Give the backbone structure.
Amino acid sequence: ARDSALRARVLARLAAAKQPAEDPEGPIALAREGIAMARRIDDPETLLDTLRNGGSAMVDLGDLNERLLVDRELAMLGEELDNPVEALRGHLRSVMDYLSLDRLNDAFRAVHACERLTDQLGHPAYTWRAVALQALRAIWEGRLDEAEQLIAKSHELGAEASDPNSEAVHIAQTLRLLQYRGEFDAQLPVLERLSKFSFGNDIGTAIAQIMIGEEHALAGRLELARGCYDPEIVNRLLRLADDSIQLSVARLAVAAADVDLAERLHRRMSVNRDHMVNGGVFLMVLEGPATWGLAWLSQLLGRRDEASEHFAHALEAARRSGGRPATALIALD
């Protein structure tokens, strides 16, 4: 078929619509094809459109370095074309890419770009996300009273904009705040909200179940955690290769004492052992070093020396990045 702006746009839009797919590589291949076609026809507006939708197909699922290149280009092209909405989208996605790569200084520079653009746009539909990014950083750095205020402000702005995505972010950030404070009983009504929240697809519902099990495990409610463990759901999520849930699955694997799952997850997480796990643009929580999860898995598998090495790496990564609560928890582990 001949190259055209319409065909490039349709390919990228189709790629985004097909995710999350059982095999995410199929839609990602369509996204690459659409973006490449847009480059060939040399139409900046078409390229912007394909980067937006093609990038959507890659969020949390595609190769991290490839995603970063796509998201940075979307941000820069949006700026060049005086399109602050698309520039914001690119910067927001870039924040999560940089966090995953443990490039926190770059991530926080991208946060400042998001703040600049949301000030320019001046609408709560955009502003709530910038405030949520500030809350993410405050939670990670242990400024918990400030984080509580930012979480509330973000949620208020999101409600004003009638954006249901703000509810998911509010739930995720509140759960992590309460965990860091040790207020585990206060998590229970928030977990009830999470159990009733509609993510719009079966994958989202499955992720919610994993998140609920993880929080029960962290709070020491192991029977409730095991009750959330469904091997079929876990295996389906692992096939997606979604790195954003790996720490959650690792915690649940340990709670369920599933050695087979621990072995498979250990192999997968070892590939990205230098990464930091975060909840992506949908949850906006920085969870911690991948080696933290590898340490738990190694303990379950009886590999004590390996677990010690992973804990040491995780401790240094958390300390270097300013994650005071995570540093304390890793030291305790």
About this structure: The longest strand covers residues 286-289. Residues 22 and 236 are 8 Å apart (CA to CA). The chain has a mean pLDDT of 93.
